[in-house]
Amino acid sequence: MQQEKIFTEDEIDLRELFKTIWKRKIFVVSFSLCITISSTIYAYNKMPIYEVKSIMEIGFLENKIIDDPSVVEQKLNIIFGVEDKNTNNNPEKGIITSIKKDKDVKNFIEIKTEAISNEIALAKNKEVLEFTKQLYNNKIEQFKTFLNNDIINIQREIDYVNNVEIKN
Asked: Would you say 96 and 124 are in contact if contact means Cβ atoms under 8 Å apart?
């Protein structure tokens, strides 16, 4: 007798459930309509955010990487305030969301920016790339000067050999 009582208590009466919902149909419809209208208004008024992602390769000078990618990543994160939400939070001017080195390839750095238009996000991304280029431009120019001096010295040696050694 007790087992029969347990089974009857565990049953769900669907008719009773539908009757309860039918009694509250005005509330259910008005609540659903209110949520639908408010979510539609929010979706149409929300500003779209565009994301631009680029991957920058850190170059080599004479089979040696210009700078350690971890160091470049830290420098750029500090200079552009990626972690500081007070200075880096205006989507109208562009936001740098992340600068991190690639885990798989040791000399690649990924830069992500967001803005209210694709052009602004792209410009902010290019700003980071140009700054990085200028940051290491002096090092590259010094290397070029060093190579040009070596070329001039080698050319002088060739001229000396051609003019003096061959004649002797």
From this structure: yes
Identity of the residue numbered 124: K
Distance from CA of residue 25 to its chain's centroid?
A: 48
Query: Is-contact 82 163, C-beta < 8 A?
Result: no
Q: How many residues does the chain have?
A: 168
Integer-rounded Cα Rg, in Å, for the chain is 34
pTM: 0.64
Query: Each residue of 80-97: b (16+ CB within 10 Å) or e?
Result: bebeeeeeeeebeebbbb
Q: What is the pLDDT of residues 110-129, one digit of tens each?
A: 999 999 999 999 999 999 99
Query: pLDDT digits over 13-64, tens only?
Result: 888 888 988 999 999 999 999 999 999 999 999 888 899 999 998 888 888 8
Angle value at C-alpha 123, between 50 and 66, nearest 5 degrees: 115
CA distance 60 to 134: 16
158 token code pair: 């060739």
CB of 101 closer than 8 Å to CB of 70: yes
Residue with token string 């967001």: 114
Segment holding 158, helix H or strand E: helix 118-160
How far is 35 from 13, CA to CA, in rounded Å?
29
147: which residues sit within 8 A by CB, 6+ positions away?
Answer: none
